[in-house]
Specification:
Layout: H1 5-17, E1 22-23, H2 47-50, E2 60-68, E3 85-94, H3 99-113, E4 121-126, H4 130-140, E5 147-150, H5 152-155, E6 156-158, E7 163-174, E8 192-205, E9 211-224, H6 225-233, H7 245-255, H8 264-285, H9 294-312, H10 328-337, H11 344-348, H12 350-389, E10 394-395, H13 397-407, H14 411-420, E11 424-425, H15 427-447, H16 475-480
Parallel strand pairs: 1-2, 4-5, 10-11
Antiparallel strand pairs: 2-3, 3-9, 4-7, 6-7, 7-8, 8-9
The structure holds adenosine-5'-triphosphate and magnesium ion (3 copies).
Amino acid sequence: SPVSGDSIRRRFLDFYASRGHKILPSSSLAPEDPTVLLTIAGMLQFKPIFLGKVPRQVPRATTAQKCIRTNDVENVGRTARHHTFFEMLGNFSFGDYFKLEAIKWPWELSTVEFKLPVERLWISVYEEDDEAFGIWHNVVGVPKDRIKRMGEEDNFWSSGVTGPCGPCSEIYYDFTPEEGHSDADLGDDTRFIEFYNLVFMQYNRKEDGSLEPLKQKNIDTGLGLERMARILQKVSNNFETDLIYPIIEKASELANVSYHVADEDTKMKLKIIGDHIRAIVYLISDGVIPSNIGRGYVVRRLIRRAVRTGRLLGIKGDGRGNLEEVFLSAIAEKVIELSTHIDSDVKAGASRILEELRREELRFVHTLEKGEKLLEEMLADALLNAKEKGTVPCLSGEDTFLLYDTYGFPVEITKEVAEERGVGVDMAGLDIEMECQRRQSQAARNAVKLAVGNDAELTENVPDTEFLGYDTLSARAKVEA
Ligand code: ATP
Ligand code: MG
Ligand code: MG
Ligand code: MG
């Protein structure tokens, strides 16, 4: 179809190729750069060129870059537009063209190539960037009331605390133009979606926070493929595009539910599985093996989260009668099937990827089984205790936390099982334990300076605190010992 995800990628690359850009391959999700955990944007492979550390090979390039953003993990399924794994389409200039073309071409791509209605497009510019405002209004012809000046948070892009950066300008699509122009807020994500970010990369942020002009002015852009697919395919979120939906269908089949008639919570869980399995497959394909540190820990956490989410959906296995209750590989096969135009390495490495995934999932399932036994013991204790003291039976915050942290037990499941036995859960006590862990991992994060990415949830305990959970009774007890 003319608007399949694969065709959008192809047409984007061809559009820029015919404007003098060399089509270059995506770089790995695990960058060589030791200061960087994962590839979060298309610009990463060009960072040394932007900084003037290595000479450019070509003046202009275009890529479809595989990206991982762990800082968006909590957004997955909650918003209609965030993934952990996604593809960023980009056009780049290395000291060649600057603002004028970097605004005109994305506009032409959006309105002529992809035929988005002009009146549905809104623009943001950095509040001090009169030049960009002027080009959008005077050259392109966007009315002033559809160009918003925004602050540093949204419109000054940087890949990390230090490094290349600059003011940016974003293009938004308006789903409900009938709402009119007064009070329109680009941050309202039921009305608008940001799909293209144009970065005018002209500074290097130094250690002391000051900005130093780069020798040459560069252009770095990013368009979210899944977001453009969502717009062009006219579906209500990125997950329903042809890039992801077949994965969700497979998961629905195993969970014995039907996505389109499911309740919101079930849909969210299916989206989480669809998202995480993509990330897991591409990470393993790029050589990231589940472990307790760094990148490996990111994959491990994603795998556990996908397994737990599947269990909450009632998935009991891969539907092929295997005795062990593992199911991720069956869904991963769908990801591999869809990978052809994203990354040919995935199909080539399929058996290794599936094997790695299966091994890690089994390991986790065994841990969960141990947790189940422990929970039974805890419940028996709680009941006995309550009987002796004549109080209401309750599972302590400490026990609930131990199950969650060490045995990967979702609090939801603990609560459900406990309630079935007439035992309550001390949620206030659990909050204290959670807060205590948050503070510890914050301290761990502060000790590390990752130049790229704000990998809040997934990299906690990394890299100076080793994850001790699975073979010890209490991770925290050991850390404290
Ligand atoms: P948002 O404000 O929606 O979180 P962003 O401003 O963080 O997006 P950029 O850093 O500007 O995103 O990245 C460039 C483009 O990449 C975005 O305009 C969007 O199309 C896409 N993109 C960014 N993050 C994600 C994500 N988590 N999932 C899917 N696409 C994304
Ligand atoms: Mg973001
Ligand atoms: Mg944004
Ligand atoms: Mg942006």
